[in-house]
């Protein structure tokens, strides 16, 4: 009975949002735009609550921003002046306690309150593909080009290598407590696995290489997408498929994904500047926008690095153009 009520509430709410969007066209221009990197960014991540943003750029190093005040809180350097050590992946803990940054061969943990560096590692014989950090820096997750996913507990020094993938790992994510991880790779598989035992919880097979994976911070959902036309939302409690994103294009590739706090919607960003809002339970696209392109690029281009729901009515984006932008979901 409770499940029926939940789906009924979702259907009514989703219908009202859809009707509102249909009756009142949403502006394709952002409400606000902030310049966070003069010559464009190499990586960026917005905190899940939409209050902080970390941006990596060649001229400014790594900046941690207070989005509301549009002020730089801290400026960090991880050998930004060396082309081989540019920070190409960043992640903010769900509780905003720490920031994880990584170049191709090194990763660092920064305390977001004090600004101090708390840990630094070097990777040998492979390169870093994607990263994630748990609350209070209790764990760091490193997806690598050799197919290994490394789970590190900085305080205890514990290391676990997940060896489920047979080819390059493209994307990783982790729950805020660091206990459950997801990873996807060129072997056409996404795994949900236990970081204490290394045991596989779910195996999600795809028809092509898995390009993006994400977990809902509240532990309700998982997202997996491949390079062709399979983008799936899964129930993290049961492993059952909830919906598939519906689109007419031959393929859609994603570079950013975020679940709404109420569990009704999914926001995605793409390398094509495209930002979309989806109905989580039907997979239907409710609306889309395009972020500001990088200056003087032909054709106009920008990669959406990160996306977050600032509240039920707005989303935030950070892109390679160096801009943070605030968008209305409805108006």
Can you describe this structure?
WD repeats lie at residues 162-203, 203-244, 247-288. It comes from Thalassotalea piscium. The chain is mainly β. It is 7% helix and 47% strand. It has 1 helix and 28 strands. It has one helix spanning 2-23, and strands spanning 32-35, 43-46, 52-57, 61-66, 71-76, 89-92, 98-102, 106-111, 117-122, 128-133, 140-144, 149-153, 158-162, 169-174, 180-185, 189-194, 200-205, 210-215, 221-226, 231-235, 241-244, 256-259, 265-269, 274-279, 285-290, 304-311, 314-319, 323-328. The strands form 7 sheets. The protein has a 4-stranded antiparallel beta sheet with strand order 1-28-27-26, with no helix packed on it. A hairpin with a 4-residue loop joins strand 12 (149-153) and strand 13 (158-162). Residues 1-9 and 11-26 have low confidence and may be disordered.
Features of the shown structure:
331 residues, four-stranded antiparallel β-sheet, 28 strands, globular, disordered N terminus
